C-alpha cells in the first residue's frame, strides 16, 4: 500500500468493507465513505484510526472530498443481487454509474490506485470448472450485469487514461457482520438465524446448486493485497476458496454447527436469476497477490457462531429481520 496518503474504503461500513477496514487499520489510518444504506456504523465502531464520512458515492462533491488525498481507493459500495431483482434501475445506478463517477473523480485527482471489488456473479453459471478469469461472463441478473459494467469501466480507465486500476472478483464471502436481513441477506447467516430459532433452513431449488465460500477475513486480505502488489495493475483477479459445496450440504453443515442437526431443509421454488454452479480458480491471486485462503468453511462457520455468541445476538430479533423471499419488494 502507498505511504503517501490514507487509503479510502468506499462502502467501508458494509460486510466485506468493514473487514477490509480492520485489516488496513492495523497498518495505519483509514478513511471510510458510506451512506449506511446497507452498511452499519457499528461495523467499524472502535476501530482505531478510522475517519468516517457519511455520504453517497452518487454525490460527486461528497465523493470528491472523501477521495482527495487518498492514496488508494478501494471501491466496495454496492446494492446486491436480490435488490437488483426488485429494483434493477436503482441497482444499476449505484453499481455501474456510481463506479463510472468514482473513476472519473479518481482520474481528476490522480489517485495512485483504484481497486474495484466486483463479484463472481459476473460469470453466471459455470460452463467449465474451476472458473479462471478467462471464463465467459454471462451474468444472470442486473446486479451481475451492472457489476460487469463497472469492471469494464475500470479496465477502460486503465487502458485509455493510464489510471492504475485493479478488478477483484470475490466469491461468496461469509463471516462476522454478514447480512441476514432484508434483501441483503445471504445464505449462511440466514441458515444460522433460522437454526438458532429452531426453524428449518429454506433452500430455493433442489439444493444441488453449488457455491464457493470464502471467509471474509481471507477476502479482505486479497482485496488489500490488490492495493499494493506491483503486478496487479491492469489485472482482473479472482479471490475464492477453490472449493465448491452444494447448498444442501451447506445446510447440513450449518445446522450441525448450530447444534440443530435434526432440522431438515425445507425446499421452495428456484429464485429468479440464480446461478447453478460457482467454483473458483484463484491461481492468479496466488501468483500476483501472494494470496491463498487460510480458513476452511467448517472453521469459518464455527468462527461466525462464536462471534454471534460474543455479541449476544438476539436471535428472535434477527429472525424478525429475515425475509424469506428477499428478492420481492416489501409492502
Summary tags:
seven-stranded parallel sheet; two-stranded parallel ribbon; 2 domains; UDP-galactose 4-epimerase, domain 1; 331 residues; alpha/beta; 13 strands; Rossmann fold; globular
What does this structure look like?
The chain is α/β, with parallel strands linked by helices and about 325 residues long. The protein folds into 2 domains: about 5-175 and about 215-240, Rossmann fold (3-Layer(aba) Sandwich); about 175-210 and about 245-275 and about 295-320, UDP-galactose 4-epimerase, domain 1 (Alpha-Beta Complex), CATH 3.90.25.10. The protein contains 11 helices and 13 strands. The strands form 4 sheets. The chain has a 7-stranded parallel β-sheet, with helices on both faces. Helix 4 (about 90-110) runs parallel beside helix 5 (about 140-160). The chain is globular, with a radius of gyration of 19 Å. The mean pLDDT is about 95.
Amino acid at each position: 500500500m502507498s505511504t503517501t496518503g490514507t487509503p479510502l474504503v468506499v462502502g467501508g461500513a458494509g460486510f466485506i468493507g468493514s473487514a477490509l477496514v480492520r485489516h488496513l487499520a492495523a497498518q495505519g489510518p483509514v478513511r471510510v465513505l458510506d451512506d449506511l444504506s446497507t452498511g452499519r456504523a457499528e461495523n467499524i465502531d472502535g476501530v482505531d484510526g478510522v475517519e468516517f464520512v457519511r455520504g453517497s458515492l452518487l454525490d460527486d462533491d461528497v465523493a470528491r472530498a472523501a477521495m482527495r488525498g487518498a492514496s488508494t481507493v478501494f471501491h466496495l459500495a454496492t446494492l446486491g443481487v436480490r435488490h437488483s431483482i426488485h429494483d434493477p434501475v436503482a441497482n444499476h445506478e449505484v453499481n455501474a454509474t456510481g463506479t463510472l463517477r468514482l473513476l472519473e473523480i479518481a482520474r481528476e485527482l490522480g489517485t495512485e490506485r483504484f481497486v474495484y471489488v466486483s463479484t463472481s456473479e459476473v460469470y453466471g453459471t459455470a460452463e467449465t470448472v474451476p472458473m479462471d478469469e478467462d471464463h465467459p461472463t454471462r451474468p444472470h441478473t442486473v446486479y451481475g450485469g451492472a457489476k460487469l459494467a463497472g469492471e469494464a469501466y475500470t479496465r477502460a480507465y486503465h487502458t485509455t487514461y493510464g489510471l492504475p486500476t485493479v478488478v477483484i472478483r470475490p466469491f461468496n464471502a461469509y463471516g462476522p457482520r454478514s447480512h441476514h436481513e432484508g434483501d441483503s441477506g445471504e445464505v449462511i447467516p440466514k441458515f444460522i438465524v433460522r437454526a438458532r430459532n429452531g426453524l428449518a433452513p429454506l433452500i430455493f431449488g433442489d439444493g444441488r446448486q453449488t457455491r464457493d465460500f470464502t471467509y471474509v477475513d481471507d477476502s479482505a486480505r486479497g482485496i488489500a493485497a490488490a492495493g499494493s502488489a506491483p503486478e496487479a495493475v491492469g489485472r482482473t483477479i479472482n479471490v475464492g476458496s477453490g472449493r465448491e459445496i452444494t447448498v444442501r450440504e451447506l445446510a447440513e453443515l450449518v445446522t450441525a454447527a448450530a447444534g440443530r442437526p435434526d432440522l431438515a431443509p425445507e425446499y421452495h421454488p428456484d429464485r429468479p436469476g440464480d446461478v447453478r454452479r460457482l467454483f473458483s480458480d484463484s491461481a492468479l491471486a496466488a501468483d500476483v497477490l501472494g494470496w491463498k485462503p487460510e480458513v476452511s468453511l467448517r472453521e469459518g462457520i464455527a468462527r461466525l457462531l462464536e462471534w454471534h455468541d460474543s455479541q449476544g445476538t438476539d436471535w428472535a430479533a434477527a429472525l424478525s429481520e429475515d425475509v424469506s423471499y428477499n428478492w420481492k419488494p416489501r409492502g
